[in-house]
Amino acid sequence: MTNGVWLETSATDRGKRLDHFVRERLPAYSRSRLQQWIAEGRVQVDGTAGKPSYLLRGSERIHVEPAALPPLRATPEDLPLEVLYEDSDVIAINKSAGMVVHAGAGRHSGTLVNALLHRFGNLSSGGDPLRPGIVHRLDRLTSGVLLIARNDAAHRQLARQFSSREVEKVYLALVHGALKSDLGRITKPIARDPVRRIRMTAKLARGRAAITEYRVLKRFEKYSFLEVRIATGRMHQIRVHLASIGHPVAGDKLYGAPASELDRYFLHAHRITFTGPTSGERITVAAPLPAELQRYLDGLPLPAPSKRSL
Fold it and tell me: Model's pTM, two decimal places?
């Protein structure tokens, strides 16, 4: 093997994981890309495909065969798209659960961005050719209203509104258990979980400021149906905050929800209010609760009547 990159380990590398070592020595490549190459057998240790968890002895020769980079720009695809609102500056989409917003590691098609480019053509650049028009995001298994900027000026205006907390975001969520109060406010900072890197956590004293307010709309035997408002937009914010008080979102196994019939999170971006970048008018766009979530809600048993009400 003459092509690719050769790396040699030394005594100082003894005990390191293969994926960590390769990441240290090849910082120009993202962690996810290197992990993908390891999974594809493109990283060989002394002539044998290595596993990410392989522990180095400190005397190996490692060969890395980079794969061709994916296209740097998102491409149009004819995919289903529900438009809730549209003007010359902004598009509001009702994102379905299961759809990824934009391309990322290992995924370059089937995203909301691919669908938007097919339907609308050019969108704002936003500084990232893989995320044209994207001002904010929703998790893959979360549905609801998502704003898209059609031009760079609108993108800057909307980004400023999100940053200055001028955008009002209202979600609907079903959580496990009965909350003690009908109204609540959670202000725990949110940081990356130091142990499970795919998670965020509100259990550390440090992190980014986050504000989540909730109101109980209806109580069920084992669940509570909430209206949730967020003043900040941290990654996984609602899911992390509600789990931190012992009430994980239904269907959210990553943050401790028990197994259920749901194949998505019971979390829906119900309503968003923003200022039109050109008109200056306040605009509210709403998306009804998806049919599958409404059916699930309708099938839940109500709590038994208390003795006081008998």
Answer: 0.77
